[in-house]
Amino acid sequence: MNNKKNLISEAIADIEYLEDKDIAKKETAFKKSHQRKFGGPPGAFEDPIYKELKEIIICKDLKQISIKRWDELEVNFSNQTIRFCPQLKQDITKVTNEHNYNAIKNNNMCIAIPYNGVLQQVLDDDTQQYIENYVFIQVSRRLIQGFHYQEEYDIKENNIEDAIKFILYYIKEDIENSRWKDIDSWIKDYQEFDIDLTIILENENFKGIVNG
């Protein structure tokens, strides 16, 4: 009797294994099909824009911006502290202390620094404002993309003011075309990243874009 029970248990286990395997194959096929359809990455949130922001890229001209994050830039295998930004067509050098920061800045080079690190605390007001705008743009990239990154929907502007305007016009269009998304929901989305969208909306350079 026990042998019979064991055989039945083994048979059931084999059937469940085959069923699970079949389900897994179907799920994998669906995911691949879904990725091809929507142009998404291998898995949601695997793209650098969905990960925690670790570096701030500061351009030598504070009116310019590297839209791409450090992890998205082209790697320099001969020097791990330098990466190339194809958008700006410039090298970005990573520094972690004030001495190196000043040395690079004095040579009119673009710089990457640790986000919320000690170095960030000693920078001047103009650079602090630049960092706030950079963070806003990076968070906006994530919110605009939704669950799957698609290059064609990414921000293309190199000018920081134009990039912010692009974001606000996107929000405006999204509100106008959505049945459920309004300005309050966008404000709430940004609040999750400790960003007050109303400050941007009330800025003289951008006032009236969304609510006008």
Fold topology:
Blueprint: H1 2-38, E1 55-58, E2 74-75, E3 82-85, E4 90-94, H2 98-106, E5 110-114, H3 125-145, H4 160-177, H5 183-191, H6 197-201
Helix pairs in contact: 3-4
Description:
This protein is α+β, with helices and mostly antiparallel strands and 212 residues long. It folds into 2 domains: 1-38; 48-201, no CATH class. The protein contains 6 helices and 5 strands. The chain has helices at residues 2-38, 98-106, 125-145, 160-177, 183-191, 197-201, and strands spanning 55-58, 74-75, 82-85, 90-94, 110-114. It starts with a helix and ends in an 11-residue tail after the last helix.
Count of helical stretches: 6
Please tell me how large the radius of gyration is: 24 Å
| C-alpha geometry | globular
Structural class: alpha+beta
Report the sheet with the most strands, covering strand number, pairing sense and barrel closure: 5 strands, mixed
Secondary-structure element series: HEEEEHEHHHH
What is the straight-line distance between the termini? 80 Å
Low-confidence stretches: 4-20, 30-44
What's the count of strands?
A: 5
Helix proportion of residues, in percent?
40-55%
Q: In what range is the share of β-strand residues?
A: 5-15%
Quickly count the domains: 2
Strand order, sheet with most strands? 1-5-4-3-2
